[in-house]
Amino acid sequence: MQKNTVLTLGLLSLATLGLPTAQANVKLVLDNSKPLGMVGETNYDLTNNIIEITMDRPVLCNQAPGYNSASLTKLRIYDPNLDMKGGFASNEGIYFDSDADYLVNNGQLFLNTDNPLKALCVSAEVGNYDLIFKTPFEDMPPSAAQIEYVGLPNIVAPGQVLNYEIQFYNPSGQTIYFDLLEYWNEHFDLAATLTAGDNIRVCNNNNPDVQCQVNDPSSGVMKGIQLASGGTFVLDVTQKVSDNSTVGAELDFMTAAFLTNGLNGDFLPRSFSENPTPNDPHIATKTVTVQTNTLPQLSWQVAPGSLTTFHEDESTPQVFEIRYSDVETNAQDLVVTVTDQLGNIVNVSKGPFVADGLDGTKTLTLLPLADAYTDGTPEQITVTVTDAAAGEATLTFDVEVLPVNDAPSFAMNCSELTVNEQNEGMTCTVPIPQDPNGQLQGVWDGHYIIADFNPGPNESQQSALEYEVQVIDNTDGILDDLGSGDPVIINPATGEISVVTINGTYGTAEVQIQVRDNGGTTGSNNGCGALPLNPEDGCDVSDWLTLNIVSQPYQYSVSGEITGVPSGKIFTLRLNGTENNLPVLVDTTITTNTDENTPNPFTLLDTISQTQFLDDGTPYTVTIEADPPSHTCVLNNGAGTINGANITNVQVACTENAN
User: What is the reported pTM?
Assistant: First the structure.
């Protein structure tokens, strides 16, 4: 940053400053600093003891809490924005402890501040940074904290939005405390400025190493920041270059971290050499040039054809390559973005940046997203390269993804059907929970077994063409597979199932079911798993699901009467028999409700207190498990074979025991 202009002081009080002329070319030397140029009028307010000067370069002044020396003369040091940052009120400034000396021959005004632990300023001189401080500079230790601008471009355009960071790293081995100030051009008289209303600042206080808060983004002042050892403070800044900024003008940026003791806010002495370097760890500056932006150059290195074509779910990618460059922005700093018009059709993966001279190249790898396809209108992909001044260059190309029939699927609401010839009905004996969003709803009384049909992803226009049923096991011979028709048929429109059995034959059969949609396939092979697998041919059949069918034999109940027992007596009868070809052993507890002279009827029950039925043609036995108290009982007709009718003649005769 070159700031060499020698500036003119206005009229100062000759009695106080000893200036021999009203117009003198002077520089300020504050606390033994290098001479710093001044501009405009220098005012001396005798009433309030205030000297006001304006610097020709960025300057940042800061004050610690409790800074007050009301009896001393105050110095207000304005930056080129005619502002004095750091929390100074309009009638406040930096106090100095001696008379101001003006050396006529050298054109220099010498001032010494009162207490640099409470107030001090930093500025820039010929590309280096100068601390206005009372003590000489010392060598900078290797462990000193480091501050820098990140992402702030060298060239900007009028109206450009800037997004950059101020980073401050602490390698010192201990927690540090500091205030952070930033200068930028904003006064309307300057040739290039940033607009005041577009200043956004966010610090990383979600990082456990950092404690910070942005109270007033437009001020550029943050107080009381805490940074742990090894941590990095990050301030994200968004500002906008004024639309009225003059092309060719410069924007000055300067930021400074004022280290404090972390107790009462007093400033710590800084360790720098007397000849500071541009790597001063507590101050960073940058000068940005305003230019009319030249748009980036963008072309194909490996170009797509007039129409890039895929099949749905194709797994072989297509790779293209772009070449791009820019006059003002390095190729590696250009931003490449890819957008799509329809969306959710194609995935485009960007490869790494590859330098090629002053240009850069980058690959673009395309694959269709799962189950996505275009429907007559191609997907348009736009590749955009953006430079640091928001200038853009674009390329577009079209992609077509041909639809392929996906395998359908379906769900059943029952995994076992039981045919009851005796009652001339069929019921579901092993239900499957239904999907409340199923396309077809099953209702048991109509035997609608299909709970849901899904034609495949993004294929809602298709429907079920047919349900194919294959008999897997008919060992018991219950299905009539010798006739002219199929023993099990499912209506594709309604999901209703029809089962044909052989009368008088009982047992279990197993079938498997798959659905075929009306989407069809192409090619000699299909994509349903046949070898070789050709996904682009599509698949029109689902996986197989299993259904068990039970033909239930005729069944009958067992009942009888109890005699000789008064009301209220309790005893237990046990039934041993066969139901659905499975053994049955159940007890029925009976409480009599008639007197001993009136027969008490009973029916033997199952484990859920429903009538127990036994298969026709199977043997049974009934036994008394416990006599009622004070009675002895004898059971008659307690064994036999079920023979096409309910058993009703089981007799239990009881007599009261003698005392």
Answer: 0.54
